[in-house]
Amino acid sequence: MADYLIAPSILSADFARLGEEVEAVLAAGADVVHFDVMDNHFVPNLTIGPMVCKALRDYGITAPIDVHLMVQPVDRMIADFADAGASIITFHPEASTHIDRSLQMIKDAGCQAGLVFNPATPLHYLDYVMDKLDVILLMSVNPGFGGQSFIPSTLEKLRAVRERIDGSGRSIRLEVDGGIKVDNIAEVAAAGADMFVAGSAIFNQPDYQQVIQAMRAELAS
Ligand code: DX5
Ligand code: ZN
Fold first, then answer.
1. Topology classification of domain 5-220
2. What's the pTM value of the predicted model, to 2 decimals?
3. Which of 54, 123, 139, 211 has CB 3.0 to 4.6 Å from 84, enough for a Cys bridge?
4. Distance of CA 118 from the midpoint of ligand 2 (Å)
């Protein structure tokens, strides 16, 4: 069986109790903390920055933190997030003027690097950077908000990226973000994803463990 990772998006957590929320979701069986950074410029919403990432580390969170940058420009945020304890940093290629340089900056800062594709962003951005990627993140909603519905064309795109990853012979995570729920996670895995971001599906339920277990049961089926 593939080694699947479940990454709750803290965008749907209770920010007034963020440390406890992250602890709870990790105790409930999550693998990775998905940390959505929005700048009200690249996307129409404003969220959290490196101070909050550092606060989670200072609180005692040791799990990997997957920082999804929805900001423009990208580069000036990289060192700040690396210093704040980020494990993975991903960004949208449209938001960076020099994609190869941004990826190299992430790696030089000691983090894993990834590119994020909006639903209608073409995959040609992968062409000359596969050797620098640890993660490819496909958005299955248009970024900016939690609680949106999964866009079905993502399945075809996942299959295309899965072929490219397998053809590259490299071990690159294929992450999917947006509208992932217990009732579609198996189909998304069958299309090639192996890392699943879920915000509202987990945090809007009273029992995080029950949702995460139900997701894992679907992935094992
Ligand atoms: C959307 C964010 C997502 C969001 C997912 O721009 O990147 O990570 O929190 O939320 P759900 O799982 O509710 O679609
Ligand atoms: Zn995200």
1. TIM Barrel (3.20.20)
2. 0.98
3. 54
4. 11
